[in-house]
Design brief:
The protein is mostly helical and 312 residues long. It contains twelve helices and four strands; from the N terminus they run H-H-E-E-H-H-H-H-H-H-H-H-H-H-E-E. The chain has a single domain, classed as MetI-like (MetI-like fold, Orthogonal Bundle), CATH 1.10.3720. A hairpin with a 2-residue loop joins strand 3 and strand 4.
Length: 312
């Protein structure tokens, strides 16, 4: 069979496209095989229990506090980061003069290139004390009777980790949202202004509504980074172990699945139950990430009814 240029291109593109699926399947299979010992030993209690005891002969490994810690920090990151990101994107596209929007856009994009360990160091030496003095102490003073705002003495806690994650996902969400808003046809804006809409109404009811599918995709990408972030979280969350890591309060030390793996995996022996535990945590993290991404695509296709890149 003679291979033409089109056939070679088609075969090459197919191989490249399927390689992503192959990598995912290989990774999932490797994690699934490695986590079999710990799942066989603890069963569903591995996922829903709270105990953590690495002492040899008395090992108990349950990961519910770390799953909830991951969801808590990611949720905090979205609650703080999404409004700020959309505000930045709207300002750069709709309000700022070009002489100001161009350099600020570059700065926002450069923030995404900063290594996470740098955010962690800044958070460890500066940011945690701001959070303690201006948020943790006032909220604890006036709302400490609510369990969610009850405080420990440490400023290395779930809220601090979630806030640093918010800062880290802002460049991703803001940059993509800016491009989405920029792609909204000017005819949409002109039509809205022609019927007497204010600038706020144009942005809120027409521009953001028109680009909502793209903005939602940007938020999901930011959430994906927040869920999997490791070093900055490990440096700021307090790294609690066992039942005390349950995220009952925003201001208590906790742990995420990613930080748990980073803190403990290198100290385990290959083939041991502890090693299998960390692999099981990785499998759970992969599964949660897949659920987030698949769920996002379902929402984008069914709720937003995206066809051909436009929202009906």
């Amino acid at each position: 069979m003679k291979l033409t240029g089109d056939k070679i291109f088609k075969i090459s593109a197919t191989i490249i496209a399927t390689s992503a699926l192959a990598i995912l399947l290989i990774t999932g299979y490797t994690l699934a095989v490695g986590s079999v010992p710990v799942i066989q030993k603890f069963g569903l209690n591995f996922f829903f229990g709270q105990q953590w005891n690495p002492i040899e002969g008395k090992e108990v490994f349950n990961i519910l506090p770390y799953v909830l810690g991951t969801l808590a920090t990611s949720g905090i990151a979205l609650l703080i980061g999404v409004p700020l990101s959309l505000g930045i994107a709207v300002f750069l596209v709709e309000m700022a003069p070009k002489s100001l929007s161009v350099p600020i856009s570059y700065l926002v994009e450069l923030l995404s290139a900063v290594p996470s360990v740098i955010y962690g160091l800044w958070g460890l030496f500066i940011f945690q004390f701001w959070m303690r003095d201006y948020i943790q102490i006032p909220l604890t003073k006036y709302l400490g009777w609510i369990p969610l705002f009850s405080s420990s003495q440490s400023s290395l806690n779930i809220f601090t980790a979630g806030a640093i994650l918010a800062i880290m996902i802002i460049p991703t969400i803001a940059s993509i949202s800016k491009e989405v808003i920029s792609a909204v046809p000017n005819s949409i804006r002109e039509g809205a202004y022609s019927i007497g809409a204010t600038k706020w109404e144009v942005i809120h009811r027409w521009v953001l509504s028109y680009g909502r599918s793209g903005i939602f995709g940007a938020i999901i990408l930011g959430l994906g980074r927040a869920v999997g972030e490791t070093m900055a979280v490990a440096m700021l969350i307090g790294n609690a172990i066992g039942p005390v890591a349950m995220p009952i309060s925003l201001f208590q030390p906790g742990q995420t699945m990613a930080s748990l793996i980073a803190n403990g995996f290198l100290d385990t022996t290959r083939g041991s139950l502890a090693s299998s535990t960390y692999i099981g945590v990785g499998l759970t993290l992969l599964f949660i990430s897949l659920i987030i991404n698949v769920g996002a695509h379902v929402v984008m296709t069914r709720v937003f009814k995206v066809k051909g890149g436009a929202v009906e």
